[in-house]
């Protein structure tokens, strides 16, 4: 009712103002006509037979009035914006805050689901959740760090480097994740960018373990394993709870063939983080080199439980199962590794070895041909293809592949020449290692 009364008063006030202005205009016109000169009045007289009304100048573009004169144009008044009541404004504010809160909860729900999938090693689901967030949230350091981590754990190092570079661009001060970037650059053998990254990290924050991990990876790529060990030990001294530094240090001890210290580093990393699959993999690799295949199978299987999306772990577990005479299980893991990473020929090469053990020579030859397409200058592939062709009775093809292997790897000429000399003879029972 208050609003209606206000509009009624405004309407009455506007009508009264209009009537006053019209009366004032009529009085002014009458006074002006009375003071006109006679000649002008005679000249402006109307002809007989018409009403003697004073003609006025038309002041508006609208239609004339019935009396022959048009009223003066009313001055325009600025429209007042309608403002609701205080209760309405408060209601609109509450609705806006509710919409903002709902949008924020949707983003947080996506990020939480992605973090949960990463913890459960469900990389594809984590990527799906991370790519579903809005663009302004996707281009942040936290999201790009976790996208790079998922690609890194799947051994897709090129995609991991792209995401982690974006992380550095949007958050130059962020140190978390740089240890993964340096390791991915180590796998890609990009020594120039790795050296620049290590120098930048140490200059920016020398008290962070990520900086010394980057420096250690840089020295490791240059085959300076002792210097790399010192850098990783510095990272451990800076942060004793940083498990990845222990794992990298263990890798360098393995490169120096100091297996006892490497085992100690891997076990320390596992005590800090039981789900740290890199340490389980490191122990399995040591036991595999020491031909302790039962222990190697156990550790590779535990590593694969924590990271089932790694084609490298599937490949090593398949090799270990093959050594334990579990050929069908080994073939299953190796084929899965080949499907997960088609560009990696190692899994298909080991798959061919398993097929040879199962006397499936045609299938083995098909796998070896696919491997030679990816690695045409690998002498071991041609040597194994020559042995398979000999098993199939294709002596000309066997001679061709043995010759290719001899040209590509002259230092193993004794083994290859002996295989060529015994080309017409049946194969011996013992395995020929290349």
TrEMBL record:
Superkingdom of the organism of origin: Eukaryota
Transmembrane segments: none
Ranges for region Disordered: 39-97
Listed InterPro entries: TPR-like_helical_dom_sf, TPR_rpt
Signal sequence extent: none
Presence of the UniProt keyword Membrane in the record: no
Keywords: TPR repeat
Biased composition (Basic residues): 53-64, 71-97
Zinc keyword on record: no
UniProt TPR repeat ranges: 209-242, 243-276, 277-310, 379-412
Annotated PANTHER family: CELL DIVISION CYCLE 16,23,27, CELL DIVISION CYCLE PROTEIN 27 HOMOLOG
Family as reported in the entry's similarity comment: Belongs to the APC3/CDC27 family.
Protein name: Cell division cycle 27-like protein
Organism: Aureococcus anophagefferens (Harmful bloom alga)
Origin organism lineage: Eukaryota, Sar, Stramenopiles, Ochrophyta, Pelagophyceae
